[in-house]
Specification:
The protein is of the alpha/beta class. About 35% of the residues lie in helices and about 15% in strands. Strands 2-8-7-6-5-3-4 form a 7-stranded mixed sheet, sandwiched between helices. Strands 9-12-11 form a 3-stranded antiparallel sheet, with helices on one face. A two-stranded parallel sheet has the order 1-10. Helix 1 packs antiparallel against helix 8, helix 3 packs parallel to helix 4 and helix 10 packs across helix 11.
């Protein structure tokens, strides 16, 4: 059983940072890897052609292992989720009159690219609202929206507002039934929840490194399925071409690309500071194991849910809860102001997303952080009166 790993990070002793869904703190080993990478450029004579490829390929392999993918060549290195999703949007089929199904309020990176291609191809973006009342889940509403006119279903693996979990396996099965493609933004779960790419078989899953992958900003990893083979990349990177490791022959231009997803790589993938940082974060996740991380976070969020419900706050249906992100919904604007003041007074960091206070612990948190948060929840209720 995984214990608290706060010593692996450098958070202030008095900080109750429950906000990994915003940005993870930097691990010591990730920081050290970045500093070492920066220092390498002190003497460029020590940077050899193989160094442009070896670290990147290690990162591809580690990410493939994390998402249980057998083929690391299907992993592309891109600078952002929007970049990775736009590559998918530009290359997957969408005909006039067909739809792209999205969830209401999902991350803009997974909306704007679909709005553009739908407008260009006379398609439709179909937005599914979250059920407000009754026994229906968000997943059930999405399943109902998928029909024979659906070309793409584009979702987060969990909803970024409150961690509400979609039944991705059920959605993937339905997507295959109608002959559509599934495109996933895994940023808010990959690294904190297990994901089996061979079981889900999306056309693409994209995950930024700076949250649950415990890595640097400006590195995102994308796995692209066979549906993306032979597509047109967003840029013509020379490192993505066969033979590009032979610098003496780079002017012998190649129109082909290296096998797999390398065609979708951003230029300058071999960033000598960021790639070692991404590698160090992925290595640590695999050492801890995603299953253990999920179980550890789940123990903390279970305590938060129990206290929040006792105090009268609204939380997600148990069928839709993620182990690592919990949304606490407020009953009134006045309570919201009181809660923000109480959180600030206790140095508790969370996020406001939509109408929810989003709470997202990771392995550097413990029950002291939970107690500080619960104290703020109690104080906010007390200012309005319990049961109000």
């Amino acid at each position: 059983m995984l214990n608290c790993q706060r010593d692996a990070f450098q958070l202030p002793a008095d900080a109750h940072y429950l906000n990994c869904a915003y940005m993870s703190p930097l691990m010591r080993r990730v920081e050290d890897a970045g500093v070492e990478g920066i220092r390498r450029k002190r003497n460029p004579a020590d940077v050899h052609p193989a160094d442009f490829f070896d670290e990147v390929n290690r990162v591809r392999g580690l990410f493939a292992q994390l998402i249980q993918a057998g083929d690391a060549t299907r992993v592309a290195v891109v600078p952002s989720v929007s970049y990775g999703l736009t590559a998918a949007a530009r290359n997957l089929p969408l005909e006039a009159g067909q739809s792209v199904v999205v969830a209401a309020g999902q991350m803009p990176s997974n909306v704007y690219c679909w709005r553009r291609v739908a407008a260009e191809r006379q398609g439709v973006v179909r937005t599914v609202a979250a059920p407000v009342e009754g026994d229906r889940t968000f997943t059930e509403a999405i399943l109902d929206a998928i029909d024979e006119r659906t070309a793409v279903v584009a979702l987060g693996t969990v909803h970024w507002f409150d961690g509400r979990r979609f039944d991705i396996e059920a959605i993937a099965d339905r997507v295959r039934d109608v002959g559509a493609n599934l495109v996933l933004d895994g940023t808010q779960s990959v690294g904190a929840m297990a994901f089996d790419v061979e079981r889900i078989r999306p056309a693409a899953i994209v995950a930024a490194c700076y949250k649950w992958l415990l890595g640097p900003y400006s590195v995102t990893l994308a796995w692209y399925g066979p549906e993306m083979d032979g597509g047109v990349p967003l840029e013509e990177a020379w490192l993505a071409r066969p033979g590009s490791d032979d610098f003496a022959r780079l002017a012998e231009y190649q129109d082909d690309f290296r096998p797999g997803a390398a065609r979708y790589d951003v230029g300058e993938t071999a960033n000598f500071a960021l790639m070692p940082m991404a590698r160090a974060g992925l290595e640590q996740l695999l050492e801890w194991s995603v299953e253990e991380i999920a179980a550890y976070c789940g123990r903390l969020t279970a305590e938060i849910v129990r206290a929040a419900e006792e105090l009268g706050y609204a939380v997600a249906d148990p069928r839709e809860r993620s182990p690592h992100i919990i949304g606490v919904r407020l009953r009134s604007a006045a309570k919201g102001e009181a809660l923000r003041d109480a959180l600030t007074a206790r140095n508790v960091q969370v996020s406001v997303r939509g109408d929810a206070i989003r709470i997202s612990p990771n392995v550097y948190n413990d029950l002291d952080d939970v107690a500080a948060l619960v104290g703020a929840l109690e104080e906010a209720v007390g200012w309005e009166g319990r049961g109000a």
